[in-house]
Amino acid sequence: MFLRLPVLDPPAGWEERVLARVDSPAAPARRLPARWTWALAAAFLLVAAVVILRRPPEERLALRQEVIPAASGRRADSAVVGDRLGLRASPGGAAHAELRVYRGERELVLRCPGDPRCRAAGGAIEAELTLTSRGSYRALVLAAGAPLAAPAGSLDEDARAARALGGRVEVGPAVDVE
Questions:
Q1: 125 with 97: CB under 8 angstroms?
Q2: Cis (ω within 30 of 0) for the bond into 113?
Q3: pLDDT for position 160
Q4: C-alpha angle with apex 102: 100 to 107, nearest 5 degrees?
Q5: How do residues 17-44 score in pLDDT, each as one tens digit?
Q6: What does the alpha-carbon distance between residue 125 and residue 16 come to, in Å, rounded to a whole number?
Q7: Sign of CA dihedral 66, 68, 74, 78
Q8: Does 58 score more than 70 pLDDT?
Q9: What are phi and psi of 157, to 5 degrees?
């Protein structure tokens, strides 16, 4: 098919015209007028501000605990049997949340909600636990978008189960009771 096409000669002077075009400076690029540049920048900033400000702040998962001495005027560096442990857990906006307290990392001594010592207060869970035995007490708050698994036997197992659901866990410091 290509064999039947006629052979054409290029137009005279084509090489000089190409080289002249390559050597000549290019025409300056057209720029937007300054007012359009400023208007586009302002529109971009406005859209960015709306997107940033409309995003709700992520609520933090938090656990606050306090040892409340049973005897007034007692001076001790650690908790003793008979003291109370005041707890407040903020679930961080999660649909499902629980407050749990373990003695010795394995014995579940409080689970909120569900225990009569627990109460809901402004989106938080509050509880007060009397420290009836010696040992180390540790509280944690579990929060997830799906229902949480029942206690599995230890603080670590429960924390792992909540994280496996995509949940978050906040563990408080140990309270050692003498």
A1: yes
A2: yes
A3: 93
A4: 120
A5: 888 877 776 656 667 677 888 888 888 8
A6: 86
A7: negative
A8: no
A9: -65, -40
